[in-house]
């Protein structure tokens, strides 16, 4: 089931654009994270899954201390205690603490070295991710262009 408004054609076009950007940048770092940001329902998860197939890439799933929303939730449920362990062992990266007391993070163990990793991430987590200097972070911002009766534009 698809939750966003992204079509396969849009994903394919974005994939080709992203590959072209990578080639033009001639990045020397072997480990890359493609960080995908955007509004809810914009197609971030759909793009991540398509890119993972096209680029044979690893998908990083954030840990969260909140309850999972449904079977389509792209997070892995964890505990505050595990977050503290990861943080104290310098393994926690891309940390975002919500105003409701929930924590979202990933770990250095989830990043596969010498390959492309894909991470659907909140903007605040992206700021933290950029402090993880052992990788090249490429940011892709998705803007939902389809019509929705719930959108404000």
User: How many helices in DSSP terms?
Assistant: 4
Output the radius of gyration.
Answer: 16 Å
Secondary-structure element string: HEHEEEHEEEHE
Q: What sort of overall outline do the alpha carbons produce when their principal axes are compared?
A: globular
Mean of residue pLDDT values:
79
Q: Helix amount, in percent?
A: 25-40%
Strand order of the largest sheet: 2-7-1-8
What is the structure about, briefly put?
This protein is of the alpha/beta class and 153 residues long.
Description:
- 25% of the residues are buried.
- Mean pLDDT is 79; it is low at 1-8, 22-28 and 147-153.
- Helix 1 crosses helix 2 (44-55).
- A hairpin with a 5-residue loop joins strand 5 (92-97) and strand 6.
- The chain is α/β, with parallel strands linked by helices and 153 residues long.
- The protein has helices spanning 8-25, 44-55, 80-88, 123-129; strands spanning 32-38, 58-60, 63-64, 76-77, 92-97, 103-107, 116-120, 136-142.
- The strands form two sheets. The protein has a four-stranded parallel beta sheet with strand order 2-7-1-8, sandwiched between helices. Strands 4-3-6-5 form a four-stranded mixed beta sheet.
Relevant terms:
153 residues, alpha/beta, disordered C terminus, single chain, four-stranded mixed β-sheet, four-stranded parallel β-sheet
Question: Could you give the topology of this structure?
Answer:
Blueprint: H1 8-25, E1 32-38, H2 44-55, E2 58-60, E3 63-64, E4 76-77, H3 80-88, E5 92-97, E6 103-107, E7 116-120, H4 123-129, E8 136-142
Parallel strand pairs: 1-7, 1-8, 2-7, 3-4
Antiparallel strand pairs: 3-6, 5-6
Helix pairs in contact: 1-2
